[in-house]
Amino acid sequence: MPHSVGTALGVLLLALTLFLTWKQRRNRALHGLAAHSMIRDVLRVVLIGAVLGGFVYVLNSYDGIPVPVLLLLVLLGVFSYVTSQTVFGRRVYAVGSNMEATRLSGINVQAVKLWIFGIMGVMCAFAGLVNTARLAAGSPSAGNMGELDAIAACFIGGTSMRGGSGTVYGALLGALVITSLDNGMSMLDVDSYWQMIVKGGILVLAVWVDVSTRAGRR
């Protein structure tokens, strides 16, 4: 995409950060709650601005922001809002945390699960369209074993195996870790079977850390 679009996107995201920070401080003041330190909020905005500036600068140096990255950012914002600010998002966490208690509280668990699997199917189809458009070719084996990367990314990003916790941002960070690992092993010409073993080992380690930390809290 053109450089101007990337710059405009960075400015828009920074303005959104400023607006959300101001709204948070105003809401806390209206409800009589103690607001965070002004220095803390300023430093957070400056840090986010620096990250956005570096992100836009790097991508603009490579002929602008790729369309798949732009789509990823849009979906990241949409699903982050849905999971944290909507009733449906709260119900998703409730179903993952304790399905029986959620059912007894009057929530239609089967409907929530149906919506979740439906959204997952739509996202898989969307990913297939983006991949086909990027490669200008289609293959029935495209995305084979991608489910291992997706599951590992979620666990690395902090999603609990027992459900009820995790964030969209955490899953994205986990996906970046897995992708970086994939690219690094490919550049080192590591055999594909060893790559699967390494990623499987990381997945087992992430699950073990999750189980052990939750057991320690009890």
From TrEMBL:
Compartments it resides in: Cell inner membrane
TM regions (residue ranges): 6-22, 42-59, 65-83, 114-137, 193-211
Membrane topology summary: Multi-pass membrane protein
One MF annotation (Gene Ontology) recorded for this entry: transmembrane transporter activity
Major place of residence: membrane
Pfam families associated with the record: BPD_transp_2
Superkingdom to which the source organism belongs: Bacteria
Keyword annotations of the record: Cell inner membrane, Cell membrane, Membrane, Sugar transport, Transmembrane, Transmembrane helix, Transport
GO CC term, one of those recorded: plasma membrane
CDD domains: TM_PBP1_transp_AraH_like
Function comment: Part of the binding-protein-dependent transport system for D-xylose. Probably responsible for the translocation of the substrate across the membrane.
PANTHER family associated with the record: ABC TRANSPORTER PERMEASE PROTEIN YPHD-RELATED-RELATED, XYLOSE TRANSPORT SYSTEM PERMEASE PROTEIN XYLH
Family to which this protein belongs: Belongs to the binding-protein-dependent transport system permease family. AraH/RbsC subfamily.
Full protein name: Xylose transport system permease protein XylH
Organism: Pseudomonas syringae pv. cerasicola
